[in-house]
Structure formats: structure tokens, C-alpha cells
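Hello K.,

You asked for the raw outputs rather than the summary table, so here they are, unedited. I folded two proteins back to back in the same session to keep the settings identical. This is the first:
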Amino acid sequence: MSKTAVHQILRNRKQVITGADYNGEKEYHRFSHGNLYPHSILHKKNCDYCDFLSGPSGPKEQADYVDALLEEINAAEEGKGRSVSSVFIGGGTPSVLDERFIGEILNHIRQKFQIADHAEITIEVNPGTADRNKLQAYRTYGINRLSIGLQSPDDRELKILGRVHNYEQFLETYRSAREAGFDNINIDLMSAIPDQTYEGWIHNLRTVAGLDPEHISAYSLIIEEGTPFASRTLNLPDEDAEYNMYEATAQILREYGFEQYEISNYAKKGRECRHNVGYWIRQDYLGFGLGASSLYGKERFANTQDMKKYLENSRTPEKIREKEPPLTREDEMAEFMFLGLRMTRGISKAEFERQFGSETDAIYGDVLRKYKSMGLLLEENGRIFLSREGIHVSNSVMADFLP
């Protein structure tokens, strides 16, 4: 597994955060639970920083895409007889879809898989794309968690990012969601936005935390190749400012009752996103839709990004999947380490030994000693985790676990 492969795995997770996946609550029973991620690539407009796969959202395109998605779900062979504890409908902007399509997708999932009684069922929503009636329909369909893509409560920053909503539209969506009965809501926030100051970020944090959501995903802007931002000269916060923004995030959100459980995610007690956790502990997940990624057993695969090919072949999954070579034992151990270390609780040495029959020190002793001596890795109560300083250089640390 190369460093490029690591980047792609982490990037796939980034798509999952804004997209769609098949995740669930593992509790270290590897083949008993799973996660589902139906993926909508439909957008009103791509933001200037976004390089995610997207497509048009007219009525015909919506209907054609959903028909293909349902055919893929029906044709999937994986997951038969398995309990699914998390369904995450993302994209794209799935809330652009007519709500009846969301109902059809969930009906097909329930017919195909065993959805656990207390499954976490999330849909991503962009402000201005889901009114009260649509949100109430989501509740009727069994959706019990929303992830709202705010990014910033500052209208000036929203314009810089190329977002099509304003803060008042977000507030309207958030209030409507509460009125519809949603008691588990995530809000996405972005730091290190062009022209953003440290003080501005602190104000954004306190503004959103003061709304009392159950979960906040706070991540920094990354300039991706091929995006409008990549072709511009941007006034970005320097490294010191970005460092201080990140450190302040955990401190301030703790004041409001949020605990950091992953590098970019903060939750009230018991409200950690199962979809997120399932990914980092390598629980199997199935992604459905154009460009969706999956991990099932020892196989990683992703669907084609060619819309024509997807629409014509979705009922034959093998024709739309682009598979990677089967994971070796060394690959699985490396993933266990570099994905698990994104969690603030880190990895369990006992669980590593249970899964792989070897002690972590026997496989990674040199790497562990190196980063412990540098103060970037810590060990306590049988768990290995990144220190605060280690989090800031986490990609470099994780890359050293590659075979």
C-alpha cells in the first residue's frame, strides 16, 4: 500500500463525510454489523473549494439517477443476512432530491438489508433545500439524524466559499428540523477560509455551539487541484493561525459540552456519529451510487465515475465497480493503525492482537518508539493515541505504518 493509497482512503472518507456510505456500530464483532451509504451526486452548484463528484439536478436527471441507484441496491450480493446499524445518505446534496425519492431509497434498503431497530439513519441537508414538509417526510421515512452543511455563520465567508445559502436560510432549516422532531443534528463548520481571522473563527464556533446541536464537524479548508480556488491567489491564514484555530476548537467546544472523539469531529455525550466511527475502526461499509466507495471483508472497491456507464450498468454491479487488489494482512494491519489513530481514543493493543495474532510492538515497535520519543504518540491503559502535537502532523505519523 502506497502513500497515495493512504491519501485516497482518507479522501474517500472525506467524500463519505459529505456523501453516502454503508456504516454501522461494530463493537468489535466484525461480521455482525454493517453500514450503508447511498450516494447522491446531485448538486445545485459546486462550491468553489469542492472537488467532489457532482451532476445536474433536474427532474429527469433525478428520476434516472434514483432508478439506477435502486437497481444497484437490488442487485448487490454483499450484506445478505447482516444487520445494518447505520445508513448515511449523502453526496452531493441529497436534500435536492424530491422527498419521495428518499422514501423509495430507504424502502429498497429495508427490503434488501436487516436494518437494526435503533439504527442511525442520517441524511445530509444543505440550507435552503429542505423545507418543513420535506423534513417532516424524512422523519416519516425513519431518518433520525441530520447533517447540515453550514460551513460558516458569516455571510461574507459563505460568499467567499461560493455557497448558495446565507445564515438566515440555515437558521430556518435548523429551526424547522427541531420542529419536525430531529433531536440529533450535526452542523458542518470550516476554518482557514480565505480572509478569515482567528477572532472570526472563534466567533463562528461560539455562534454555532450556542445553537446547541448534538454534533459539530469542524475541519479546515483544503485547496484541491482542479477547483476554482486552486486557480486563484487566496489570502489564507498562515500556519500559526491555523494551528491556533484548531487548538481553540477543542477548548471552546468543551465549554459547550462537546468532546472531541476524532480529529475533526466533536459530539455531546453518546452522540458520536456511528457512520464516522465505523469507518475509522474499519467496519465493513457498502457505498451505492456514482463514485461511491466500499470496504467489504478484504476488498476495497469504488463505483465508476462515468454517469453513462453507471446508468446503463447499475443492475450489474461487477460492471460498474473498479476494484483494488485484495487487502493483504499487512495492508489490514496498516489500516487498523492509521485509521484508528484518527480517533482521539486511538487503537487498542489487545484488539490488534485479537484480530491479527501479533502484538503491536512486534510489528510496529520501531515506529511506535520513534514517535513516542518525539512526544507525538502516547500510550495509556493499553491504548495508543496521538498527542495534541501528534494530531497536527498526523498524516506524517500515519504514513510510517505503511508496509
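The second followed immediately with the same parameters:
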Amino acid sequence: MAKRSYFQDIVSVLGSNLAVTLSNIITGIILSRVLGAAGYGLYSSILVVPIIVVGFTQLGIRRSLIYHLGNKSIPERNIYSAVFLLLLYTSALSIIICGAVFFFSDSLLVDPLIVGIVLLTIPLLLTNVFAGGIFLGKEQILRANIINAGPSLLTLVFTILFVWILRFSVLGAFLAISISNIFMVYFVYYIFSHDFKLKIIWKYQEGTIKMLVRLGIVNAVAIFIMQLNYRMDVLMLKKLSTLEQTGYYSLAMQIAEQLWHVPYAIETIILSRSANTNDDQFVHKTVASIFRISLIIGLIGCATLFFLAPWVVPLVFGKAYTDSVLMIQTVLPGIFLMMGFRILNSRLTGMGKPQVAIFTFLPALMINFIANLFLIPKFGGVGAAWATNISYAAGSLAFLFVYSRLTKMPVAELFRYRQSDFYFLRDFRHFR
């Protein structure tokens, strides 16, 4: 069991996520101003392809690693050997699928050099994803934080160099992502070779691979459905609307989704702790308390962004992106609902039940698709935002009732605030 409190670990991860948030915002400012709405829309439409594909082809191994390393059901040495082989398989599969999408899609006619950089970056992304799972499974939160924040911080640095200074346009944006991930892979290699004293052994661990993949595939399907729910709007906007609308909406979602960094910090710790404990009732109660506090934080965050967006967006990103303001304000209800979902889902995933997200959000994905078909042609990015709200609401509410049944905790109990919910203030006074 970890020596640090939930609150201390959450604050640690939150600090990492705030670094990610700040880096992503500044990177977004540079890209939106230098590339323009059409260029930023093109960049987003290219980037969404590997995001969705890698979300599925990683086979959910990251979360499977957290679960199996946490409950120590498999010897670590066997896990590491299996991960090296799985990295090779998933990288090859991801490159093939992404390459096919770029080759056959007439809507993504872009520079072959950009496509090549994107494809070669995929193994680097997967290496960092798997390494993050290992660190969280071993409750090495600091190293997990470095893996989390490092790519965004480095991407900002190289975006300034390649996009702002050297004016490499969209090519420079993808060079920044690729080179930043190269640096992080070197960090992972250093940790594994020097601290873990790990030597790469290309030995086929059939039993271990099957256990990792069996749980991982369920995680992968859940992640894929969630990623598709997050990114379907961008894909459909590019097809049913204009690059400008795609750019406005992409920026709006990038800003609004920054509110997820708080629940993401909580989600990360709950996932790691759930895999490393056998006291289910204690964790159920702790998660419920964290869930209630997170709703308050999320409501404050959404309200703040709603009122600040009209003057912050034009000031920071330029008057050309004023159309993004209404999209931000429109999508906030859906963003708020997903905060609660992510926290509760991390508990079930840590218990080895990621399939619940599939059953609840697959229908929501279909709702999202149908709503976009009707709303985007008429309302553009604002219509996509409403489709997102409808989809997120349907999925989150369905998940809430299933979670209540599985944990034997009534829905009303999940929302019943207690004085003990605010005990984190005591931890704050002693936090160092």
C-alpha cells in the first residue's frame, strides 16, 4: 500500500496535469495564430487519425498493466518480457491501419513527409503509454507524472522552434510531436536499464501475453469507443462542414477539455490504488466522497470558463476565433457530466471491469453519430457541441446506474454530501 494519502498523490498528478494544460494552451495559441483556422483544422484532422487508431490498437495494455502489476497476479519479469513483444505487435498494427487510412482517404491529401513523420511517431507514443502503465502499476507516481507531462512540455518547446521561429507550418507541428516523444523514450530507456536493471528479452510469454491482452482488449474497446465519442465530431465536421468550422470547434474542445485534468488526476490515482488494494468497501466510500467533491470543483470550473471565454478567447487566440466562444459555452454541460463518469469509471477499471463503459457508451456513440448528421449541416460547430452534450449525457447517466448496482451503493448515496467529504482540507494543511 502506498505511504502517501489519496490527496497527496492527487495533488502530485494534478501538478503534472496543470503543466500539460498550460503547455497545450500555449501550443494551441501558437498553432492557431501561425497556421490560421484552415491550417489548424487540417492539423487537427490529421492528428485525430492516429489518436483514434492508437487508442484502439494499444489493446488497452496500459490499464491491463496497472491492474496486473498492482494485484501481483503475474511475475514482473514475465510482464516486462511480454510488453516488449506487445509493443512490437501494436506498433506494426497501428502503422498499417493509419497508413491505410491516409492512403485511401481522399479527404486527407497531405504531404507524404507529414504522413511519414506521423507513422514513425506511433511506436514512440506507444512506448510512453506502456511505460506509464508500468509506473502506475508499481505506484511510482513521480515517474508517471514525468511521462505524462514531458511530451506536452517538450512539444511546446519544439513548436516554438519549428512553427513559430522556422515557420515549418503543419510539418513543423508534427516534427515537434515526434521529437518530443523521442526524448521521452530515451528517459524510459534510462529508467529501465539503470534503475530497473532490465534487459530486453525477446521471449514469448504465452500465458502472460494472453492475460494482458484478454483484459487489455476489453480496455481497448472501451478506450476506442470513448476516443471515437470525443473525436467523431471533428471527423464529421470536416466531412459535413468546412475546415474553418473544424478549426473553431477543435480549438473550443481543446479549451473545454482542459477542465478534465482535475478528474484525470483523480482517475489516475483511483485506478492505481484500486489495483493495489483488497479493501473494496473502503475504496467504494472513498471514491464516492471524491466523486462528490469533484462535482463541486467541476461546476466552479465550468461556470468560470463560461463567463471568461468571451473575452479570453479573442484576447489570447485572436479575434478570428471568436466563433469558438459559443461552441465552448455550448459544450460545457457535456464536459461537466463526463467529469463524474471518468472518476467512477476509473474505479471499475481498477477492479478489472472496463466492459461497463462499453455497454453504456456504445449506444451513446450511435446517438452522437445520428445527432451530428442532423445538427452539423445546419449549425456547424455549435451543432457538433450539442451532439456531444446529448451523447455524453446519455452515456454518463446509464453508467451511473450500472455503477450503483455493481457497487451496491444507491444513486442517492453517491450524491449525499457529508462533512467527512471535506477532510481533504486537513491533508492540505499538512501537505508538503
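The chain is about 85% helix and 0% strand.

Happy to rerun anything if the numbers look odd on your end.

Regards,
P.
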